[in-house]
Design goal:
The longest helix is centred in the first third of the chain and has 27 residues. It is built from 12 helices and 13 strands. The strands form 3 sheets. The chain has a 9-stranded mixed β-sheet, with helices on both faces. It is globular. It starts with a strand and ends with a strand. The chain is 38% helix and 25% strand.
């Protein structure tokens, strides 16, 4: 029997340190205003970003000091392990499972490096079996909340009955740079936060939602829109001003193509669940998908409370939509480096 893939559980978590947008703006002014000539012109991004608070792997004072690869990655490992434990424990508990029930783990993260991977580091503690399959994925950026979910769903579909754990962890704040006197670095300072999500998928009769279709679109000649540049100090943000207008113009046709390959159309989508990359990106999504601003209420609420956490952010939105009641059919959408768009459709189970 060809069972459909079901989402069994979804859990989210964020670090305990909270930074208000006012604190971020004040600290940035203190650190950059005397060194960056155009800083005054960038100040409005803090008030216009639609963000009130965000969570961070380290307290605010940590970011006022210089850091290199070693302490950035140590901070990543410490906090990523904590978030992995918390989200996985909650997702397993919701599904009535234990670590020993997991057959495959897909972990996405583009904001830090861990080798051995996080799942291996915590395998004994969580109780994963020695034959568990592990797939750590790096480099998908903000799109990974959807594209990683799709990878996990396809693995579950290929092995009916197998329990697949999907974990998304991003610690964007650790890429904050004192030495980057650029517009992109200031905008990143105003936008990004940290968080994680975990969910369980399995092909079978029971679940909270059914995974109906998955798909991606890679836009040619767009490598410079979003990504990392890497040097001796750490990651440095690549973020083009052209992102919102590009999304406004190009996303609609790309999503139409993804949906069309599965015999679907935008007209059949009852709710778009979007990665809230920022206030301007949300406005671009509304135009691109021809939807009213009121339709992205949970996206704005998550952005206001957590900022842009990269890949797990869309799963925070999904959690709120499901709590309210998943509609008959929803499309989960995110964009990321490449430049790319990912889409997963979910139907009410």
């Amino acid at each position: 029997m060809n069972e459909t893939v079901k989402l069994l559980s979804l859990a989210t978590a964020a670090p305990r340190h909270v930074i208000t947008q006012e604190e971020a703006a004040e600290t940035s002014a203190r650190l950059f205003s005397s060194r960056l000539k155009d800083f005054a012109h960038l100040v409005p991004v803090f008030t216009n970003a639609g963000i009130r608070t965000r969570h961070a792997a380290r307290p605010l004072s940590w970011f006022t000091e210089p850091h290199g690869w070693e302490d950035r990655m140590q901070a990543y490992q410490d906090e990523a392990r904590s978030l992995f434990r918390r989200t996985v424990a909650a997702a397993l508990d919701q599904a009535g499972l234990t670590g020993a029930d997991v057959d495959c783990i897909v972990t996405v993260s583009s904001t830090g490096v861990a080798t051995p991977s996080l799942d291996a580091q915590l395998a004994s503690e969580i109780g994963f079996r020695t034959d568990v399959e592990r797939l750590p994925v790096f480099g998908l950026g903000c799109a990974a909340g959807v594209s990683g979910f799709a990878i996990a769903a396809r693995l579950a579909k290929a092995r009916p009955g197998a329990t697949v754990l999907f974990v998304s962890i991003e610690l964007c704040t650790l890429a904050f740079r004192l030495d980057e006197l650029t517009r992109a670095n200031i905008i990143a300072t105003a936008l990004f936060g940290d968080g994680a999500a975990a969910c369980i998928l399995r092909a079978g009769p029971e679940g909270l939602a059914t995974v109906e279709s998955t798909g991606e679109h890679l836009f040619p000649d767009t490598l410079g829109i979003m990504g990392w540049k890497i040097d001796d100090t750490g990651f440095g943000i690549v973020l083009a001003q052209s992102l919102p207008p590009f999304a406004e113009k190009e996303l609609g046709p790309a999503i139409d193509g993804i949906l069309g390959r599965s015999g679907l159309s935008r007209a059949g989508i009852d709710r778009f669940i979007c990665h809230p990359g920022g206030a301007r990106v949300l406005a671009a999504l509304e135009t691109a998908l021809s939807i009213p601003s009121s339709a992205l209420d949970h996206e704005r609420a998550v952005l206001e409370e957590y900022g842009n956490m990269s890949s797990p952010t869309v799963l925070f939105v999904l959690e709120r939509v499901m709590r309210e009641g998943l509609p008959k059919r929803a499309a989960m959408i995110a964009m990321g480096p490449g430049f790319s768009a990912s889409c997963v459709t979910l139907t009410r189970a």
